[in-house]
């Protein structure tokens, strides 16, 4: 067991160093966008009448004027109250075609197919119904378009992070992806990872696709892999801030994370083999290597350390030192907790999440426990054959913590 653990740790270190060694081997080519492009706003909204008004109001308040007729809200039923709210704001409603396909990617596909028949747009923004944004969000994102970035995302902040620790901890997951992950990718001129919404795609790409071809459980990560595979220029703009509503119940986060993990591995199964063939001849060599490596070093490191601890505990028990074995287990768990707590402190210092001082203290104490629950979520995702998309009710303001 100890030998396997050591091999896992050595493999993890090797993969990490390989990823770091190739990180600068990217050639970024930018093609400046046209000035003042036409903009379409895509919003997948199923029974989102509780929050859609806030998004539409936020779009009206943008410093770069948005024609509300160019805001396309996708619904499933004509009697959805969302339709009436959209009518008040002058937004365009698109009715889903095939309700057997219950994923956001299919809803966006329906919207784009309908739009392409009507007109051409230079830029497509994608939002969720529960999003809002700073008044200068569109204006700041347009600067990235004009510089030549084909796809760009903004800074994802928590809309309801102060409701409870579950929402705060969930928002920190995106801080890890956006803040830590994309910030490093930005320095290396590597391709970004898109999580959720709050991003744009240039119109020529959408026209080439003829729709929205990303239909997996994690269509955002699939888009990220597709962009990396094809060497698109991507960008992460921390100055362009948008807000997203986080789950407030632990059960919701479990369903959400199981879907993410299942979608992560499913998308990689489809794209990594293609990346492997393309790596040596690609301009974005470092990005391809980074995506091929993915989270393997983390998984192998956790597995290796776990095996070493179990081997030591087994040896101590066999030697009659059961008390010392308990101390080793307790010490190992305590060490992991301290490391994760310090990591949480670092994230809170580096990120600009809208969390109160009291909530920051709570999340420092409890986020390490939340992070460890990714392990059972991962096991469930890997063992469960059929993982489906489940709706999270938005607009909840009161939470019974005892039932969470």
Topology:
Elements: H1 2-21, E1 39-44, H2 52-60, E2 71-75, H3 81-89, E3 92-95, H4 104-118, E4 123-128, E5 132-133, H5 137-147, E6 151-158, H6 165-187, E7 199-202, H7 203-209, H8 219-229, E8 234-244, H9 250-278, H10 285-293, H11 296-318, H12 322-350, H13 357-372, H14 374-383
Parallel strand pairs: 1-2, 1-4, 2-3, 6-8
Antiparallel strand pairs: 4-7, 5-8, 6-7
> Radius of gyration from the CA trace?
22 Å
Question: What percent of residues adopt helix (DSSP H or I)?
Answer: 40-55%
Counting helices, strands and paired strands, the structural category is alpha/beta
The number of helical segments is 14
Distance between the termini: 38 Å
How is the main sheet built? 8 strands, mixed
Mean pLDDT, all residues: 90
Strand content: 5-15%
**Strand numbers in spatial order across the main sheet:** 3-2-1-4-7-6-8-5
Shape: globular
How many extended strands?
Answer: 8
Write the element-wise H/E pattern from the N-terminal end onward: HEHEHEHEEHEHEHHEHHHHHH
The low-confidence runs, each spanning 5 or more residues with pLDDT under 50, are 397-404
């Amino acid at each position: 067991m100890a030998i396997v653990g050591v091999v896992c740790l050595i493999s993890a270190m090797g993969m990490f160093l390989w990823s770091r060694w190739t990180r600068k081997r990217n050639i970024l080519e930018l093609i400046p966008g046209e000035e003042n492009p036409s903009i379409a706003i895509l919003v997948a909204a199923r029974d989102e009448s509780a929050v859609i008004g806030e998004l539409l109001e936020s779009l009206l308040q943008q410093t770069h004027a948005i024609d509300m007729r160019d805001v396309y809200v996708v619904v499933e039923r004509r009697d959805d109250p969302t339709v009436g709210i959209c009518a008040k704001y002058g937004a365009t409603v698109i009715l889903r075609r095939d309700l057997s396909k219950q994923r956001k990617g299919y809803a966006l596909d329906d919207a784009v197919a309908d739009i392409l028949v009507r007109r051409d747009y230079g830029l497509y923004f994608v939002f969720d119904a529960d999003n809002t944004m700073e008044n200068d969000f569109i204006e700041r994102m347009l600067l990235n378009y004009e510089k030549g970035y084909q796809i760009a995302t903004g800074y994802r902040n928590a809309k309801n992070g102060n409701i409870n620790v579950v929402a705060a901890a969930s928002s920190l997951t995106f801080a890890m992806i956006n803040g830590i992950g994309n910030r490093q990718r930005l320095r290396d001129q590597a391709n970004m990872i898109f999580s959720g919404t709050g991003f744009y795609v240039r119109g020529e790409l959408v026209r080439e696709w003829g729709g929205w071809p990303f239909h997996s459980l994690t269509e955002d990560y699939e888009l990220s892999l597709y962009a990396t595979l094809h060497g698109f220029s991507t960008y992460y703009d921390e100055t362009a801030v948008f807000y997203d509503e986080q789950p407030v119940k632990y059960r919701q986060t479990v369903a959400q994370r199981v879907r993410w993990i299942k979608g992560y591995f499913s998308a990689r199964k489809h794209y990594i083999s293609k990346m492997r063939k393309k790596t040596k001849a690609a301009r974005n060599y470092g990005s391809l290597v980074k995506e091929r490596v993915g989270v393997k070093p983390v998984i192998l490191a956790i597995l290796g350390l776990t095996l070493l601890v179990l081997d030591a505990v087994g040896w101590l028990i066999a030697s009659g030192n059961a008390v010392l074995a308990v101390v080793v287990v307790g010490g190992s768990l305590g060490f992991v907790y301290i490391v994760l707590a310090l990591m949480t402190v670092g994230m809170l210092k580096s990120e600009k999440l809208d969390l109160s001082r009291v909530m920051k203290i709570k999340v420092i104490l409890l986020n390490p426990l939340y992070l460890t629950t990714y392990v059972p979520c991962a096991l469930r995702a890997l063992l469960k054959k059929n993982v489906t998309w489940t709706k999270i009710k938005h607009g909840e303001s009161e939470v019974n913590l005892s039932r969470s």
